[in-house]
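Worked problem 6 (solution included).
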Amino acid sequence: MLGLMAIDVDGTLVGTANVVREDVWAALAQARAQGMRLAICSGRPAVGNALEYARKLDADGWHVFQNGASVVKVDTGESLSEPFPAQKLQALIEHARHTDRLLEIYTDTEYAITKPGELAERHAALLGLPYRPIRPEDLSGTVVRVQWVAPIEDSAQITGEPHEGLELHPAGSPVMRDTIFVSVTKAGVDKGSAIRRVAEKYGLGMNRVMAVGDGSNDLHLLRAVGHPVAMGNAEDVLKAVAETVVGHVDEGGLVEAVQLAQTL
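Solution. The predicted structure is:
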């Protein structure tokens, strides 16, 4: 049996109905009971639904949020996160206001927005949070990541704009299909770098780690582990680097991955 399984949320753990199948929960609980560590490895922050998923999967474990920018031990709140560059943060906030776009600014546990409105409200509901618009100037704590949230037709324009010294992680959600989420982290920070830190905490080599994902923001993650797995609904770029492709998220494909991890 492998020592650690890293699990993306949207499109991997959670399907189009924004819920986790009961057979998926049962398979994951069995793996954890047998000693396998389980780590959420999501673009979502460590709040709301994602935090509850992490606690249910591995209550005293390390989990990866915000595309690797936030690495948190959920029982104690201990963090391995790195600060987002302050000068670049201010420039992005100013650009968001100039272009009238929604930019979300995140600490490990809170976030602010540049543009209140329907899109921000829908995203709060997806995250499982009450809609409470906070201005960037009123956000307390250390900022670790920002995220563009925009209509999907704006994806190419946003990703084509200069973000020197930063990493872009575009992703979608099966629940908000009309929206693109472009997570922005410090250069060198991604799901792959984060899962290496988690594996090190557990004393595991990467040959004893499996990762399961579906989107292009999971590419660094799958390349970092010894056993990369793509969901049946995954983007082609992810299937190309995967060792195994399992079923669609809505058909419980993650169960197949868990069963495979228990045999390796």
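Discussion: The mean pLDDT is 94.
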